[in-house]
């Protein structure tokens, strides 16, 4: 019961902080995303390398992600010319050059994981700036809608998965990666995601047609499940239960945002293809 209380309270606090940073102003949003990025990249690199190995290069990689975010943020926030965004390549190149001087080259191939973390985490988080600055002004409503769809999917998957997906004979979604995930949980999560999208449209927060809302929710649900399984694959490979412990009762930042890293880019891409953003 104590564990459940801790998980519930920390979850409420996490949601409250997320809502405040998305809705209040652009600077809180930027600080929030940068903090998440640093935590997620640090957790991702800790899985294969521990706390000490390749520490300098890992720090440079995280710094390059922060620089990329700040440069993309500065263009709409402060009117910075677009050409300066290319400066983000400098810290990324420094990461590559610094790898030449690594003393222990016995596991040099593992340095590819450094670049993987930059692409997997830093790039989608940095590109989220394109969703919150629309029409020249800051608005976190669209990303808030995305988060609500993702959270609804998680809740639906948990409820249906625990109620029906753990029974003997129930079909598992991907047992070799995540033994507890079931097909009934997938369908339950998708139902809740679609329901959330339709409610958001009814309230006027999500400006899209009914069919677009349904397709968007289904796409984000599937992408979110893929993102969750992708992170689970890494954790299982390296024998890690949770990516970290930054959120009491929930694990690390990567555990909380693994589905988001896939779901939000796919949702944004869908809306962009149909000229809805």
Euclidean distance between termini CA atoms: 44 Å
**Integer tally of domains:** 2
The number of helical elements comes to: 10
Overall shape: globular
Give me the side-by-side strand order of the main sheet.
Answer: 1-2
Main beta-sheet annotation: 2 strands, antiparallel
Give the uncertain stretches in residue-range form: none
Mean pLDDT: 86
Tally the beta strands: 4
Q: Assign a percent range to the helix content.
A: over 70%
Range of strand content = under 5%
Class from secondary-structure proportions: mainly alpha
Order of helices and strands: HHHHHHEEHEEHHH
Radius of gyration: 19 Å
Protein topology:
Blueprint: H1 2-23, H2 26-49, H3 55-78, H4 89-98, H5 112-127, H6 129-132, E1 133-134, E2 137-138, H7 141-164, E3 172-174, E4 178-182, H8 183-203, H9 210-237, H10 253-273
Antiparallel strand pairs: 1-2, 3-4
Helix pairs in contact: 1-2, 2-3, 2-5, 3-4, 3-5, 5-10, 7-8, 7-9, 7-10, 8-9, 9-10
Characteristic key phrases:
277 residues, globular, 10 helices, 2 domains
Descriptive report:
The chain is mainly α. It folds into two domains: 1-139, no CATH class; 140-277, no CATH class. It has helices at residues 2-23, 26-49, 55-78, 89-98, 112-127, 129-132, 141-164, 183-203, 210-237, 253-273; strands at 133-134, 137-138, 172-174, 178-182. The chain has a two-stranded antiparallel sheet with strand order 1-2. Helix 2 packs antiparallel against helix 5. The longest helix is centred in the C-terminal third of the chain and has 28 residues, at 210-237. It is globular. The N and C termini lie far apart (44 Å).
